Amino acid sequence: MPLSSQLNFRKIAAIIAATGTLFWLYTFYAIAHVPMGDGTGFQWLAVFPLGMIFGVFFLPAWLLVAIGRLPRFTTLFGFCGLIAFAVVWAQLLTEFPKP
């Protein structure tokens, strides 16, 4: 496999991992600005599934990008993480109280 092909997939994997990381950080901001609802603070329970997605998909992706191993797998794995974020976040948006 040519070196340029590996570097391109490595860059794509890094971009996907950065996107997932930034979205995960954004979710803390978004949850903090959810209307109070009944005042119990249960909206913060959304942090757990989002954190698990980050830990399962994006921490290993960052590790594999850093050591330069399995760039195509890392790209696919990170993309699966983005899909998982989209599915869970779409569900959470329907559960949060509306302003």
Largest sheet: none
Strand percentage lies at under 5%
Mean pLDDT: 89
So how many helices?
3
What does this structure look like?
With 99 residues, this protein is mostly helical. It is 77% helix and 0% strand. The chain has helices at 3-32, 47-67, 71-95.
Write the layout of secondary structure elements.
Blueprint: H1 3-32, H2 47-67, H3 71-95
Helix pairs in contact: 1-2, 1-3, 2-3
Q: Quick summary of this structure?
A:
Helices cover 77% and strands 0% of the residues. It has helices spanning 3-32, 47-67, 71-95.
List keywords for this structure.
single chain; 99 residues
